[in-house]
Design brief:
Elements lengths: L3 H16 L33 E3 L2 E4 L14 H8 L2 E2 L19 E8 L2 E8 L12 E7 L7 H6 L1 H5 L3 E5 L16 H14 L4 E11 L1 H9 L9 E5 L19 H5 L14 E6 L3 H13 L6 E6 L3 H23 L1
Parallel strand pairs: 6-7, 6-8, 8-9, 9-10, 10-11
Antiparallel strand pairs: 1-2, 2-3, 4-5, 5-7
Helix pairs in contact: 5-6
C-alpha cells in the first residue's frame, strides 16, 4: 500500500488536473501514446426532455431520461439517474469566480435554455469552409475545465476552429452568473444534453455531425454524456475526464457525501454501461488518472467504445496534445462518412 504522503500527492495531482485550465502548446508524438481499436460509430436516436422537482427542505434534482429507439431499453446509468435524484446539502453559485470571455474575432455570445433556465454560451465560427457539407458544419460542443467559462477556453479551441469545426462553448447552471444551483456534475449533465439539442437545431449546423468534448471537469461531463441513451452524437472525448472514485475527496462537494451520489457523477464505476464512442486522453504524468482510465477501459472492453490515449508531459502542457489528437480522430470519422 502506498504511504500516506504518496496518496496525498496523487490526490493533489488529480485535483490540479480536474480544475486546471488549458495550458501551453505541445505537439503529440509517438512516445507515450496508448491506443486501442477504433470504436464503431453509433446510429442517431431521438432527443429527450428535462425535468426537476423539489422534495422537503433539501433540493432534489431529477435527471433527464431521453427516449430510446423502439425495442431498446434505457441504459442502467440513465435509469440510476432517474431513480436516485441527487440531494444537495448546499445551494448556491459555482465555487469558481468568473470573468466572461471577452469579444474575439468570429466568437459571439448567445443563450440556450435548459430546464427553463436561460444559460450563457459562446459560439465560435470556423476559420475555413473545408469541413462544410451539404447539411452544414460539423460542430463540437466543448465543455470547459473548472466551474466557469473564461477567455482561456476560447483560446484553447483555436486548433479546432482552424481545422474547420464550429465550436459551441456552453456554461451551466450557477456558473458565469447563470441562475440555478451548483450541483457538481449532476444537473450540469442535463445542461450538456440541452446544449447538444440546441446545437442540433441551429441553421448551418449538420445535426448528424456533432461531438461532445471536454477538459478536466468538462471531460468528466463529456465522459458521463457517453453513458446516456441520447441524444446520440457522432463522437465524444475527454482530457483528464476519468478520475478514480476518490475524485471528490478534496473538493467542496454540494451534495450528500454517499457512495451513490459520487457514483452518479463518475464514469469509472459505470464504465461498462458506455453507450457512445469515447476517447479518453490523459497525461502520462497524471499517474492516478492513467490508472483510473485503464480500469475504465478494462470494464468497458466488451463494448469496444472506449479508447485510451496517454500522452507525454504534465497535464497543463498535454492539453494541447490531446486537443490535436481529438481533432485527428474527429476529422477521420468525418472522412468515413463521405
Amino acid at each position: 500500500m502506498a504511504p500516506p504522503w504518496h496518496r496525498v500527492l496523487l490526490r493533489a495531482s488529480l485535483l490540479t488536473a480536474l480544475l486546471s485550465l488549458p495550458g501551453a502548446c505541445q505537439k503529440p508524438g509517438s512516445p507515450g501514446y496508448e491506443r486501442t481499436v477504433e470504436p464503431p460509430r453509433p446510429k442517431l436516436s431521438s432527443d429527450g426532455g428535462l425535468g426537476a422537482r423539489k422534495s422537503g427542505g433539501t433540493y432534489t434534482q431529477v435527471s433527464a431520461l431521453n427516449p430510446v429507439p423502439s425495442g431498446k431499453q434505457h441504459s442502467a446509468f440513465s435509469l440510476k439517474r432517474l431513480n436516485h435524484p441527487t440531494r444537495l446539502v448546499r445551494r448556491g453559485k459555482s465555487p469558481q469566480g468568473h470573468a466572461d470571455p471577452v469579444a474575439a474575432d468570429g466568437v459571439r455570445p448567445l443563450t440556450y435554455t435548459a430546464e427553463s433556465r436561460t444559460l450563457k454560451a459562446w459560439l465560435a465560427s470556423p476559420h475555413s469552409d473545408i469541413l462544410r457539407g451539404p447539411s452544414g458544419y460539423p460542430t463540437i460542443v466543448y465543455i470547459h475545465a473548472g466551474f466557469a467559462l473564461t477567455s482561456e477556453d476560447i483560446r484553447a479551441v483555436e486548433p479546432l476552429r482552424a481545422a474547420g469545426f464550429v465550436v459551441f462553448l456552453p456554461t451551466f447552471r450557477a456558473e458565469n452568473a447563470n441562475p440555478g444551483d451548483h450541483e457538481m456534475l449532476f444537473g450540469e449533465l442535463d445542461d450538456v444534453v440541452a446544449a447538444v439539442q440546441f446545437v442540433r437545431q441551429q441553421s448551418g449546423t449538420d445535426p448528424s455531425k456533432i461531438a461532445v468534448f471536454g477538459t478536466a471537469t468538462g471531460g468528466m461531463l463529456a465522459a458521463l454524456f457517453s453513458l446516456l441513451d441520447g441524444p446520440a452524437v457522432l463522437d465524444t472525448g475527454s482530457i483528464a475526464g476519468i478520475p478514480g472514485e476518490d475524485a471528490f475527496d478534496l473538493l467542496p462537494i454540494p451534495f450528500e457525501n454517499t457512495d451513490e451520489e459520487r457514483s452518479l457523477r463518475l464514469f469509472l464505476p459505470n464504465a461498462a454501461d458506455i453507450q457512445q464512442p469515447h476517447l479518453a486522453c490523459v497525461s502520462g504524468q497524471d499517474v492516478a488518472l492513467v490508472g483510473a482510465a485503464r480500469q475504465a477501459r478494462a470494464r468497458a472492453a466488451s463494448t469496444k467504445l472506449l479508447e485510451l490515449e496517454v500522452v507525454s508531459g504534465p497535464h497543463p502542457s498535454s492539453v494541447s496534445a490531446c486537443i490535436e489528437r481529438y481533432r485527428e480522430r474527429l476529422t477521420g470519422r468525418l472522412a468515413q462518412l463521405n
